[in-house]
Amino acid sequence: MLEVLGSQRRLCGGLTRRDWLQAGTLGMLGFGLDDFLRLQEIQAASVVDQKFGQAKSCILLLPYGSPPQHETFDPKPLAPPEIRGEFAPVSTSVPGVQISEGLPKIADVVDRLTIVRSMTHPYPVHCTAYVTSAIPDYTPDLETRPRDPRHWPYIGSIVDYVEEQRAEGVAEVPRNIAVPWKMNSRGGEAASVQAGPYAAFLGQAYDPVLTNFPDEGIRQIIKQRPYGTSHPVKDPYAGIDPGSRFHVGGAQLRQSVTLDRLRAGLSLRDQLSSARRRIDQLATRTLDRHRQMAWSLLSSPKLDEALNIQSESNTERENYGMTLFGQSCLLARRLVEAGSKFVTVFWDEYGHLNTDWDTHWNQNHRLKGWLLPGFDAAFSGLIMDLEKRAMLDETLVVWMSEHGRTPTFNREAGRDHWSRVYSIAMAGGGVAAGNVIGESDARGGDVLDKPVSPKDILATVFHLLGINADALVHDRLGRRLPIAGTGKVRSEIF
Length: 494
Prior knowledge:
Layout: E1 2-3, H1 17-28, H2 33-37, E2 57-63, H3 81-84, E3 89-91, E4 98-100, H4 104-107, E5 113-119, H5 128-131, H6 155-166, E6 176-179, E7 209-210, E8 220-224, E9 230-234, H7 259-264, H8 268-276, H9 281-299, H10 302-307, H11 314-320, H12 324-338, E10 342-347, H13 363-388, E11 395-399, E12 404-405, E13 417-418, E14 422-427, E15 435-437, E16 439-440, E17 447-449, H14 454-464, E18 472-474, E19 480-482
Parallel strand pairs: 2-10, 2-11, 5-15, 6-7, 6-10
Antiparallel strand pairs: 1-18, 3-4, 5-14, 8-9, 11-14, 12-13, 16-17, 18-19
């Protein structure tokens, strides 16, 4: 059940806060979530300003491992070499604003962005789940426990949950979809699936639908490990064949059922009906929603059409970069165009742990070789493509990681985890253009002005998507939990 905080004045749909509390009472009397939400859409949240709800969809770009702020959006040219690193700053399309010279194409689109240079939180670990959900605290053991009951729902799952109440009928494409595969599933033998993009107590029916990208890359790069070990890897993030394709048939589609199996499962309806008699109400809703989603995807060509990136011109595809991240960003645009509401694009580890954005060692080799060029082309290509298609004003784009990296280099020529200050970038969907928020100190190690928390970003994203950031969602214990936690809408972002 979802509740909206507010005054006694009536909301758009005619319900007062007291009505919402009464709905909670109805729940205790046996009326379920579906019974009540059929009567009222969550979009009844009061409109605070003209930016509320300007974004119709969101593309969240998640570089797992975390980029260094010094070599991306917050260079420190006056700092000593052990802090500033090898990359010089470059001027951008906004006078007085500089970013890393490794991002020349992004420098040309800074006048479309808001850069936040004062992100901060207390957990310098791979806490994707912390920065993308309202979970109030985090411990390292949660990293590798995606189904731990302490987790809170992923931002995309909340959006999916809310959009389901607003929508009429079943979506023809997944509202909440993640590209290119399950996060941290290709990092080699030592990798373990990371927490983060999961629906937690909302139920697995609201997990992102996952695509699959089965191909390896076409460019062999050397991934170096500590103590002199190195590994040649054909990393798709460094380059892919233009004929490589994304699929959903091999990805998990609610309760581990794939489209391939669904097409072969002629007795699916009977199986689900039988299952409903044996499981509790939550699981029933999950399976029922799963069935509706499955049949919708089977009967609609829109998802297959969106996945067919080969239908784009070669020029358009090259604008994004012929890498896995570049083509994933292109696919994200196509999915939004087809009707998806929340698309997550992972830049994941591939082949071996700690060999991509988690730059504990040999950082400059990676940044120069494939990380910065791939990011530069994909991000700038996405922004310009959305603008060209008149989609940018209604599509919110967020580049955000778990944390930043240390002000100084370690003995392995890398930067370690650092969450006291780091940078993110946002564009479209009502976000201010040519805007820089906050400031780090001379070392790039602490916030000097306007600290912004990941929870503030959650609240602001919800707000721009037209979701009341003060809304409450009930967990399995009946507790009323805020969808953005302690986050506050940051009006300076828009």
